[in-house]
Write a structure and sequence with these properties.
The protein is an alpha/beta fold. It has two domains: 116 residues, no CATH class; 144 residues, ABC-type transport auxiliary lipoprotein component (Rossmann fold), CATH 3.40.50. The protein is built from ten helices and eight strands. Strands 3, 4, 5, 6, 7 and 8 form a six-stranded mixed sheet that branches. Strands 1-2 form a two-stranded antiparallel ribbon. Helix 1 runs antiparallel to helix 3, helix 3 packs across helix 5 and helix 7 packs across helix 10. The chain is globular, with a radius of gyration of 20 Å. The N and C termini lie far apart (43 Å).
Length: 287
């Protein structure tokens, strides 16, 4: 049997890890998704039993997703898709319900073996490194930067609050691949916004040229997301759009993915609108 100390640099007892797993699985975000519960439960329990070497796409497909024995991972990316959903769900959990939890369970990108560690040490060290890296990129490339304010949640429920935060995280991820884009850490910028700093002062603090603001609203199984881009110097609105989608118990993450991808595509088209001589997508800092 594997000991907790081999799972991470911060050892916890097996009982403590199992209790943390139960806490996550009982959260409403996971309770609504049978696949996410099975996925996380399987990989954590297999790791605790010393079987982490078995955590491959094929094993997960057969044991978690009930795929047939002739399943071919190289031809079907279903496991990778659900792994991405699981990573985002865990991120949601530790932003909200598990914000003060000591034990963090995460799934490194490109892997399926869970990383179990001290939440505060890993989370804030990672956030600081990302912020420092993006600041260096901004100085070196003289790129444009856009700060995204936390979206106003007009329907104040845990699910909608989590959705609004998750959408901001996904926006940063979707925009990072664009050329000459500087993406400032969401967590760092979110902390600035929580201090009730003036709109223009936030923009000045991060050297932002543009601010992205938005709101989310839920009514009768419909989600409405309003997004706008504002010139940080003049406070004049430059672009806005309303997205409306039907919400089901299982498509929350899909809506985040879709809208973030659509906004990313909009930035490619908007470069001419912002007066760029060449097609150079805007940098984005998400608060």
């Amino acid at each position: 049997m594997i000991s907790a100390s081999t799972l991470s640099p911060h050892p916890f007892s097996r009982k403590a890890i199992e209790q943390q797993l139960d806490r996550i699985l009982n959260d409403p975000l996971f309770a609504e998704s049978k696949i996410l519960k099975r996925f996380l439960g399987f990989i954590v329990n297999e790791t605790l039993e010393g079987n982490s070497n078995r955590l491959k796409e094929y094993t997960i497909a057969v044991n978690v997703l009930d795929k047939p024995r002739d399943f071919k991972p190289q031809e079907n990316g279903i496991v990778r898709i659900h792994a991405g959903r699981l990573r985002r769900a865990l991120s949601h959990f530790y932003q909200e319900t598990g914000a003060e939890d000591e034990i963090q369970i995460s799934i490194p990108k490109g892997k399926y073996v869970p990383f179990i560690s001290d939440r505060k040490d890993n989370y804030y060290n990672l956030d600081r490194k990302q912020s420092e890296s993006n600041n260096k990129k901004l100085v070196a490339n003289d790129t444009m930067v856009v700060a995204v304010m936390p979206f106003l949640c007009l329907s104040n429920t845990p699910t909608m609050n989590s959705f609004a935060d998750g959408l901001c995280f996904r926006l940063t991820e979707a925009l990072m691949p664009l050329n000459e884009v500087s993406v400032i850490s969401y967590q760092a910028m979110r902390s600035l916004a929580q201090k009730n700093i003036d709109f223009k002062e936030i923009a000045s603090t991060v050297n932002a040229n543009y601010i992205i603001a938005g709101s989310t609203e839920y009514l009768k199984n419909n989600i409405r997301v309003y997004i706008q881009i504002v010139d940080a110097n003049t406070c004049m609105q430059q672009w806005s759009k309303l997205y409306e989608r039907k919400l089901t118990p299982s498509n929350l993450f899909n809506i985040e993915d879709e809208i973030s991808a659509l906004v990313s595509e909009e930035f490619k088209e908007l470069t001419h609108f912002f007066g760029q001589e060449n097609i150079k997508p805007l940098g984005l800092a998400v608060i």
